[in-house]
Amino acid sequence: MGNGKSLGAGRNLQGIKQKRKEVSVRNGNGNQDLSAVATLEGRLEVFPEEILPVVHRETAAPHSDRLAEIVKLLLVELGVDVANQHFRETPERVARFYREFAGGFCVRPETILKTFRSEARELVVVSGIDFFSLCPHHLLVYGGRIHFGYIPNGQIVGVSKIPRLVHALAARPIIQEELVSSIADAFMSVVKPSGCIVKAIGKHDCVAVRGVHCPAVSMTTVTKRGIFEQERLHVEEFDRAITEGQRCVR
Ligand SMILES: [Zn+2]
Fold first, then answer.
1. Chain CA centroid to CA 226, Å
2. Cα of 64 vs its chain's centroid, Å
3. How many whole angstroms from 203 Cα to the centroid of ligand 1?
4. Distance from residue 173's CA to the centre of ligand 1 (Å)
5. Residue 142 C-alpha to ligand 1 middle, in angstroms?
6. Nearest-CA neighbor of 105 among 162, 62, 43?
7. What is the domain partition of the chain in residue ranges?
8. 3-state class of 29 per DSSP?
9. How far is the CA of 201 from the centre of ligand 1 (A)?
10. What is the whole-number distance in angstroms between the Cα of residue 174 and the centre of ligand 1?
């Protein structure tokens, strides 16, 4: 057993050495460019900032060609004839899809939530916001509706800014539980209301099309901040407003 293990490790090391060889380049003096090797060595490990949902990250490296190559490799590994007419542009299309869904890593809430001064101190509810996100465990789509409420404390935001914030923060692989928290925290940090509440009802493809195969199952996540954590009446008023919003016709 011990031999098998070390053999596997040896093979892995060989693979790493091979990779190093592939990208090592020579500079003008004919010497090996160590920075290129160092970069690849770095790519062999996953850095935490690449997998964690960092909302305020300033930039996302636009390695679109590399992403398309990865998708192509996935198709080849699945036995797909990538030269077939239906697959020829698929790697680029899928790469674009994942780029779109990773845009949320660059979101800066303060650029979305333009505020206005206001004396309003009553509950504001923006409900029925359709959303889609990616499950980080399976990279499958989930989505549904998000309902948002807040009680202003000197500042309000335009009604369209709430769906914009939801869509921006949902555009990345993030679990639904943390999506609602990130929306609430972003709103609290920029608008500074007395409190806010976020409810998401989502259906997950990873539950519907694989594993337990239960397409009817939905998951509800609720997060509360400030006054909503202490005052049950505000939560009840929020829930009634959601129901009324669903009946609204025009
Ligand atoms: Zn999943």
1. 25
2. 18
3. 10
4. 10
5. 8
6. 62
7. 70-100, 111-244
8. coil
9. 15
10. 10
Give the per-residue pLDDT at 101: 85
Distance from the CA of 177 to the center of ligand 1, in angstroms? 12
| Distance in Å, CA 121 to ligand 1 centroid | 39
Compute, in angstroms, the gap from residue 221 CA to the centroid of ligand 1.
15
Report the chain (250 residues): mean pLDDT per 10 consecutive residues.
38 40 38 37 37 42 76 97 96 92 87 97 97 96 98 98 97 97 98 98 97 96 98 96 92
Nearest to 194 by CA among 161, 156, 164: 156
CA of 233 to the centre of ligand 1 (A): 34
What is the torsion angle, in degrees rounded to the nearest 10, for the CA atoms of residue 77, residue 83, residue 89 and residue 91?
10
Q: Which residues, 6 or more positions from 142, have their beta carbon under 8 angstroms from its beta carbon?
A: 132, 133, 134, 135, 176, 202, 203, 204, 205, 206
Separation of 14 CA from ligand 1 center, angstroms?
A: 34
Q: For ligand 1, an ion, list residues with CB under 5 A.
A: 135, 137-138, 206
CB 170 within 8 A of CB 104: yes
* pLDDT value for 100: 86
Q: Which residue has the tokens 């040896």?
A: 10
Q: For the domain 111-244, what is the CATH code?
A: 3.30.1130.10
Angle at alpha carbon of residue 54, lines to 75 and 175, rounded to 5°? 65
Cβ-based burial of 36 (10 A; exposed 0-12, middle 13-18, buried ≥19)? middle
